[in-house]
Amino acid sequence: IVVIRALDDITIDVEHGSRIALIGANGAGKTTLLRVMAKIYPPTRGTVDVVGRVVCLTDLNVGMDTEATGFENIRMRGRLLGLSTQQIAELVPNVAEFTELGDYLKLPIRCYSQGMMLRLSFGISTGIHPDIVLLDEIIGVGDQSFEEKARARISRFIDTASIVVLASHSPHVVRTFCSSAIWLSGGRVMAYGPVDEILERYSSSLQPAIGNAPLVAK
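The structure corresponding to this sequence follows.
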């Protein structure tokens, strides 16, 4: 039997105001750590203590009912996220305006294209005001004009959160949204500190594999 430790001996204390990036190669454990923090994956060892409402943008379609309409899914996801009746009533027009899906919101979402599904699930997830935001990359949501609208929305979404943890391969995204970074490799924390310092250390660790070409854009 081969046992792979997706995460190994990780201890993190994240406080109010934190904007933390998770960096590392594919398979380093970034998405797994986000899902453990969101309590989607229960840890096999150790504990996770979370105080506050969490929104985890790793699996946007989780909890969506393909036989229900767009409007019904907005209300159901609102309930799952712990919103009150009043908050759900405010969420519905907010998501409808953002997604620009119009009368399609009256149809079962099994009729939607993949892009329409992404707009709806993204609109719902970013339409509330969580305490903790867990992000796996900055998500693209369609054509260029809508992409700009989505980026503006997620920027506001991140700005209002108490804590943000973002997994990304993009130095630009990491520098834009985060003030500190955790470098993961093989499920272990290799370094934790200011963004620029950790990006430089991570980039330097990859240099032998690609020669002297710099990986981190200034």
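The longest helix spans residues 144-159.
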